[in-house]
Amino acid sequence: MRVVHPEFAPDASLSREEMETLQYDVAETATFRDEFDFDPESVRTGSSDDDQRELPTGKSDTGEKPIVVGVDQAFVGEKAVSAIVAARDGEVIERTHAVVETEIPYIPGLLSFREGTAILRAFEELSVEPDLAIVDGSGRIHYREAGIATHIGVMLDLPAIGVAKNLLCGKLREPIQGHLSEGERIPVLANERVSAPDGTVIGYALQSRQYDNPEKRHVNPLYVSPGHRVSAETTADLVWQLCAGYKLPEPTRRADAYADEVKETVGS
DNA sequence: GCGACAG
DNA sequence: ATCTTGTCGC
Fold first, then answer.
1. Which residues bind Mg(2+) (predicted)?
2. Which tens digits make up the pLDDT trace of A130-152?
3. What is the mean pLDDT of residues A160-179?
4. CB–CB of A2/A124 below 8 Å?
5. Strands (E), A77-200
6. C-alpha distances in Å from residue A182, one per residue of A108, A246, A253
7. By CB distance 3.0 to 4.6 Å, which of A61, A125, A131, A220 could disulfide with A66?
8. Does A58 have pLDDT greater than 80?
9. What residues are paired with A73 via a beta bridge?
């Protein structure tokens, strides 16, 4: 697929100040409301039920099901490996990847300038037109509301969601005491460290999976946030639907595995 | 100066 | 993110 907004390219040679200014521009172009055509309820995983009956009409509606892509990165020395796995109705239909030399180190808040180019190059290799992207990292849960999921989503004008294992910034509306139960979600609000008005719901802590006996051992929640063209609430709904009994959503797990596969092919 | 800090 | 064996628990 093609880039729609090349002016937001995550150029690693920019100064820190220029990078931050670019992020404010990206956030201004982004929308954190539901702006997509597919039915959120139609998004599903592949490893779930196999009782997929034909429709009453007998007509196959697979062509109407949204294409969801998972995006993940791996590193080999100074090279960044970006992997994308596309699936429709839970079935993998295409996989692409790109290997790009990293130019800058990891800096909290500027992740897209380290990994963005590799991700975009992998997207350019994609021949199918995705309806939604699940990106590892934050979206709106970011100092300037422009995490990597937002940056990628805006450049491609593609509905995108950010899925992170740790909270970059913002504050939970209610503190987690001990642990959450599977399926629970707590709003993540903007605080003084976020450019959004204080109290704005910028994402959710989502307990995608939990052990039977959390008292002895528990799983940490996922921190999900809108990247582009998706609301915080729908973001949590979609990620929850994509988690087939695992902590990470299916698209992410597949991209993760593919990135490891490619990684073994590349030398440092 | 002291914390906070996606991947 | 990455370096890595065993090990705890369901």
1. 72, 136
2. 999 999 999 999 999 999 999 99
3. 95
4. yes
5. 79-88, 91-101, 132-136, 160-164, 171-172, 185-189
6. 29, 11, 19
7. A131
8. no
9. A82
Can you give the pLDDT at residue A50?
Answer: 44
Q: How many CB atoms lie within 10 A of CB A31?
A: 15
For A219, other C-beta atoms within 10 Å of its C-beta total 15
Three-state DSSP state, A29: helix
Q: Which nucleotides of chain C does any protein CB come within 7 A of?
A: 1-2, 9-10
**Which domains are assigned to chain A?**
15-45+66-265 (3.30.2170.10)
Q: pLDDT class for A56, splitting at 50, 70, 90?
A: very low
Give dist(CA A42, CA A238) in Å, integer.
10
Q: Is the CB of A106 under 7 A from strand B?
A: yes
